[in-house]
Amino acid sequence: MAEDGASSDGHADLRRIKCDPNYWYPVGWSHELKRGKTIGTRYAGQPIALVRPQEGEVFALEDRCAHRQVPLSKGRVEGESVQCCYHGWAYGRSGRCIDVPYLGKGKLPNGVRTYPCREVGGLIFVFPGDPDLAASVPLPSLARAEDPEYKTRRFGRHVDCHYSFMHENLMDMNHQFMHMKQMGKMKPRFLGNDIQPAMVEARYSFARTDGKQPWGETIIFGQRRDNSAKYAHRDVMTIRTEYPYQTLRISTDGAPPVMDLWIVYVPQDEAQLTCRVFGLLSIRRPKLKGALELAWPFLVAFTERIFREDRDIVELEQQAWRELGGDHNQEVFPVINMLRDLLRRCGVAPVHEAS
Amino acid sequence: MAEDGASSDGHADLRRIKCDPNYWYPVGWSHELKRGKTIGTRYAGQPIALVRPQEGEVFALEDRCAHRQVPLSKGRVEGESVQCCYHGWAYGRSGRCIDVPYLGKGKLPNGVRTYPCREVGGLIFVFPGDPDLAASVPLPSLARAEDPEYKTRRFGRHVDCHYSFMHENLMDMNHQFMHMKQMGKMKPRFLGNDIQPAMVEARYSFARTDGKQPWGETIIFGQRRDNSAKYAHRDVMTIRTEYPYQTLRISTDGAPPVMDLWIVYVPQDEAQLTCRVFGLLSIRRPKLKGALELAWPFLVAFTERIFREDRDIVELEQQAWRELGGDHNQEVFPVINMLRDLLRRCGVAPVHEAS
Amino acid sequence: MAEDGASSDGHADLRRIKCDPNYWYPVGWSHELKRGKTIGTRYAGQPIALVRPQEGEVFALEDRCAHRQVPLSKGRVEGESVQCCYHGWAYGRSGRCIDVPYLGKGKLPNGVRTYPCREVGGLIFVFPGDPDLAASVPLPSLARAEDPEYKTRRFGRHVDCHYSFMHENLMDMNHQFMHMKQMGKMKPRFLGNDIQPAMVEARYSFARTDGKQPWGETIIFGQRRDNSAKYAHRDVMTIRTEYPYQTLRISTDGAPPVMDLWIVYVPQDEAQLTCRVFGLLSIRRPKLKGALELAWPFLVAFTERIFREDRDIVELEQQAWRELGGDHNQEVFPVINMLRDLLRRCGVAPVHEAS
């Protein structure tokens, strides 16, 4: 199995499927990149220098000087160009080498690759695939991140697993079992699913069967709830993978969601067995002004604890995959199999060597 | 040599020989595993969950949930079953999956492998080979570990080497040279050996040629000795590999041993180039009650120092093996060559790929 | 490219070229090795034990006991021999095994390899190639290291890169750009080069275009200088690779150099992608006695900062090489291409496997 990348169910091993690069992927937060500075980031093993010139938009270059392949992100921003820190070779927005300090202008060497780049909602996106397709592929909608009715938490971290584990983790709400210490006993009820060529959606409701409502949840719902039947199965949680992004919304009685999460898992290494998470978690503001601000630190701590449990378990899944040399997932929940098919269908299968 | 696993002497490379799994191997200490708990351990790359239910005997399962291969040892013990921490799949003593909380009982998925498991003398043993053979293979005799005439130290640690280096280290008492700082100058005399299909035994006596008797030794012998001829070559040290275990006994004039060690080196990783040591070191109680208890901390410190020197050197042997890509041991001591043959004969040679 | 070791320019990949072992390479500092002691060192993956007996010259043995391949440098020096720490096998200056304490003298086993060894200028050199050539290959001249007119700093450290990156770094003075923070803006002028079968030389002068003269430079030149034309391009810096060593000299108006550096980069691992630097930096003593001693700590700190910047950048080059699977250097400076040809020509190309 490790050899041909196929898993026991005859499909290509999901953990070997690469993300389709012909989408917009965030690779940095706007606040990380000051005017006149450059930072280094990655997409699937490709080093990328993000440059914010003194004037104008952010741009993205291959993060390797054409001369000696050292990171341009260690260099200096001068006007609309970036100078390599080593011998001072300079590159403009187009990636062209525009100056070698000790060489005549007539014979400038080749430059470096550029990436289409956009900045929106506090995120810096690049398009790592075919640049000719970038204009025709829309940026994702970032849910409520810019809606004044909501307060949004921007969060991110690195997780040592293939992005598919993250999609499966979030969509399979039976894993509430794992968060019992944080959330109390919650019985999920699967309400149904929806499927489209590049989308899978699952809907759930919940009933608390034991334990008190945690404070984090109180903040999200804006109300204190007991375990009575009154609240059981009242809210609908809708989790959707719209390739390659994922969202989770909680709504009550058809009202606008009390919580709206947009999240994406950007491959870091070439094998795509590690990812960087970019998440936007929007909470609907309650009528009482300032209440959400006051409660915010508790919400942050609550979601952090949940996320840490999720990260630990997906990293254990990835570790088992490494040890076993392939995916042995024995899935019994149909919507997760639909999701797995979607990720296989929309991703890029590894190229096999001829025998 | 690295390619075909054969060493310069034409034999299969001893450091590539795997332990025969059709023996009982300890994988944990009884005191590590509380009632109603589970812990994760390993045999030769196989993760094993040891479970001590609220009632009844310890049992041992493959430490990977059938669903997503995460460790069952991270889960919860409920009655006589263990629930996976992630989605709550439950497994009984037989390894069968007995519950998936969100699935009808009619269509339960496959379970996990179990290991025959026994608990004796403070050790938890599993039988990693063919389970049908377990009943006919006896548990090892643990020397004086349960004899009230003796006080037993239970010790263990991980050593980064193939188990064969450990057997050779203990049996070749010419390595007393290395412990000179701890023990003073001791001249070993080889008294002879014994050999059977699954056993090799070497016998030695010693004479102190320089330095004082260390306190640790005084405790073991229960008497203070000078370097006079009176004590030279009086005690017989018998070291025996009874596959896959090893023992070392020191006796004076045919009396019951003053020291009796039972020890085994359990492979940890799949290549078996690391091992976990489980040792039972029994010291005969002196007539003076309480004396051994008082001296115990000194004995512990003394044996720890000796063991640390042994560990450092076998890890250097293993490192040289890695760098050289194979075993270059040039052995001149016949009993060690007998031992090497035994470990090859009783172990499992690596399967070679057809050319 | 990673496969056949050839780079994009059709040459063998420079970073896969091994150092020619038929030269004298330093592997230790004299002060590291006390009388009656032994230390372990390396050349290109070969472990070497340097032994300084109670009397007579240092000698160098393969640092693996013939018995069990553990380092002899962990052993004890006895007269003119070294005893392995494990079972006491002893080896003389010739590498022959001269004693196994528990074996008759008639049947002593094979010994270990020796290396021709010389000690000069505070350095211990070995000749890792064909020992028959050692006598005919001269030790390098160590510049001013033993000249009382100069004070010499001996420095060394490990750098995680192929030695060729170090040669290129020092010879391409356009990398002054990188040291701008330490040195101020210095415009280099290339004055010309010289080339011989085993030598490449580059000459430069400099003009300060901005910033103050750093104190370190003041110490080297023995005078305070402003940025006026008076000092521009007055000094000549001569950098030479005389295979496998490198030197850098600064002279003013044909006077003896104010600074004279001898340096070599000794491969550590078998792939030669890490090296240990041995450098002798000699500064001409000013007329005012004691002034250089007073200023010395500042000079040390200054050169350390420069060296740290150099080390960081060559390690980034090496890291890019690993990620790209080969050398993508796009060199535009002719003398560096001459240097690269020299290192390829004088070094040892990797042996290719037949297809």
Automatic annotation (TrEMBL), chains A, B, C:
<dbReference type="Pfam" id="PF00355">
    <property type="entry name" value="Rieske"/>
</dbReference>
<dbReference type="GO" id="GO:0051537">
    <property type="term" value="F:2 iron, 2 sulfur cluster binding"/>
</dbReference>
<keyword id="KW-0479">Metal-binding</keyword>
<dbReference type="InterPro" id="IPR044043">
    <property type="entry name" value="VanA_C_cat"/>
</dbReference>
<feature type="domain" description="Rieske">
    <location>
        <begin position="24"/>
        <end position="126"/>
    </location>
</feature>
<keyword id="KW-0560">Oxidoreductase</keyword>
<dbReference type="InterPro" id="IPR036922">
    <property type="entry name" value="Rieske_2Fe-2S_sf"/>
</dbReference>
<dbReference type="InterPro" id="IPR050584">
    <property type="entry name" value="Cholesterol_7-desaturase"/>
</dbReference>
<dbReference type="InterPro" id="IPR017941">
    <property type="entry name" value="Rieske_2Fe-2S"/>
</dbReference>
<dbReference type="GO" id="GO:0016491">
    <property type="term" value="F:oxidoreductase activity"/>
</dbReference>
<keyword id="KW-0001">2Fe-2S</keyword>
<keyword id="KW-0408">Iron</keyword>
<keyword id="KW-0411">Iron-sulfur</keyword>
<protein>
    <submittedName>
        <fullName>Rieske (2Fe-2S) protein</fullName>
    </submittedName>
</protein>
<dbReference type="GO" id="GO:0046872">
    <property type="term" value="F:metal ion binding"/>
</dbReference>
<dbReference type="Pfam" id="PF19112">
    <property type="entry name" value="VanA_C"/>
</dbReference>
